[in-house]
Each structure stands twice: as structure tokens, then as C-alpha cells.
Amino acid sequence: MNPAKRRRLESTQLTLNKPFRSPLRTTRTTLSDGSDMAASGANPHVTTAPALHHASPSKASNFSLASIPAKGHNQYALLTRKLHKLRQSLDIAEQALQIVTSGQNDQLEALTTKWKFIAHGAADELFIDTKARIDDMGGLETWTQKAQDDKLLWAEDERHKSHGSQSSILEPDEDDTSVEPNLSQSPKPIVHQAFTMQLMLRQMNVDPTAIGFDEESERWVN
Questions:
Q1: Phi/psi at 213 (nearest 5 deg)?
Q2: Are strands 213-214 and 219-220 parallel, antiparallel or unpaired?
Q3: What is the arithmetic mean of pLDDT over 67-84?
Q4: For residue 37, how many other CB atoms are within 10 A of its CB?
Q5: Does a structural domain hold residue 217?
Q6: Mean pLDDT across the chain, nearest whole number?
Q7: Domain for residue 185, yes or no?
Q8: Dmax of the chain from CA atoms?
Q9: DSSP3 helix / strand / coil % (the chain, rounded to 5)
Q10: In the predicted structure, residue 10 carries a pLDDT above the cut 80
Q11: Which of 101-119 are b and which e, b meaning 16 or more Cβ less than 10 Å from the residue's Cβ?
Q12: Residue 79, domain member (yes or no)
């Protein structure tokens, strides 16, 4: 046999004896491995550090509250309220300091003076009108007596309303020895005095010094 032909036969026989490997299977395996690595986001040359678990602020606060003993809850609440009040005082002080340093203090003083001037005029007009009405009623003593009578009548009317609403639900107790206020008793003695600006402001729950009225000299002051 020709030597060249023999070598071709031997190479062909060796090729046939090798196991069959599909090229498609190799490509799919390579692609699947690459897709898995891409999906996982892993880099074969980079090592991942272990994840650190940090406690959230809410969990930390819950833990701090839970760690307080039951006996210390009241003290904790008291200190919290005090801290809140101190923060409010600090905010007010900062606002006042800002007003003083920003030059707004002069503007506030001017507005305060203007407000007092308007309040003085309104109080004078009201005092003249009120004093005229009191004089028409017979003076301050008569007006005070009428005010006390109206107060007693109002209290008696409220007592009857309250008693009527209670009696519709509960029967009166015959053994009840509670003492009801005697509305027919003589009222408190009336102090004879003149109707003044100070008295009118006090009746209106207005502090005379707040709007610049001097109680000793009985006049307006700046």
C-alpha cells in the first residue's frame, strides 16, 4: 500500500475513534455561564465584603425607651417637658436678641407708643359714656347693687335648670342634708366709691399698667 495513502487512513481512523463533542453545546454552556455571572452581578476577580447590619433610628429609640425602668417613666416624661419648655424659652430669647440686634427695636417701640395712644383715646370715650349711664341709674352704688342682683338671679336660674335636669333622671333623696346656698341672704356690703378709670379697667380685666395708666396719679403716662 502506498505510504501516503496509509497515513491518511490512520489519521481518519484516529479521528473516528475520538468522542464526539458538539460545538453548539460548548457555546451554550459558555453563554449560560456568562449570563449567570451577568445576572448575579458578580465579578470573578472581585471579592464581595460581608454586609453590615446597622440598626435603624426607630429601632434604636424603641430600644432606649424600652430600656428605661417602669419607675423612671414619670421622671423621663417630666424631664422631657422641662426640656421642651427650655427650648421654647431659648427660641423666644433668640428672637428677642435678633430683634434688638437687627434694629427693629426702635420700630417696635414706635408701634407700642402708637398703640397706647389709640388705647388711651378709646378708654377715655368709653369711660365718659359708661360714667354717664351709671349717673343716670343713680350712681355707682345703685349700679353695683343691680349688678349683684343680676348675678344672684342668674345663679338661681342656673340652679333651677340644673336641679330640673337631675330630677328628671333621679328621684330626690329625702335624707339629703346638703345645704344649698341661701340666695336670699343679704349681699356683701357695698363700698362707697366713685367710678374711676381704674375701676372701669379692672372690671374689663385690663391691666391699667399695660396701656399706660398710672393708678396713683390717675392719669395716662407714656
A1: -110, 125
A2: antiparallel
A3: 79
A4: 12
A5: yes
A6: 71
A7: no
A8: 160
A9: 65, 0, 30
A10: no
A11: eeeeeeeeeeeeeeebeeb
A12: no
- Angstrom CA distances, 89 to 85, 97, 102, stand at 6, 12, 20
Per the CB < 8 A criterion, the answer to whether 153 and 187 are in contact is no
Give the structural domain span for 159. 112-166+190-222
Q: Is 35 domain-assigned?
A: no
Q: How far is CA 187 from CA 110, 133, 149, 182, 196, in A?
A: 47, 23, 9, 11, 23
> Tens digits of per-residue pLDDT, 163-201?
665 555 445 454 444 444 454 455 454 454 688 898 889
Three-state DSSP state, 135? helix
Q: State how far the Cα of 194 lies from the Cα of 132, in Å rounded to an integer.
A: 13
Question: What is the number of structural domains in the chain?
Answer: 1
Task: Give dist(CA 163, CA 155) in Å, integer.
Answer: 12
Of 220, 164, 155, nearest to 187 by C-alpha is 155
Instruction: Return the amino acid letter for 188.
Output: K
DSSP conformation class of 211: G
Q: Which residues contact 218 (CB under 8 A, 6 or more apart)?
A: 196, 197, 198
The CA distances from residue 36 to 22, 41, 112, 156, in Å, are 22, 8, 78, 92
Is residue 169 within 8 A of residue 176, CB to CB? The reply is no
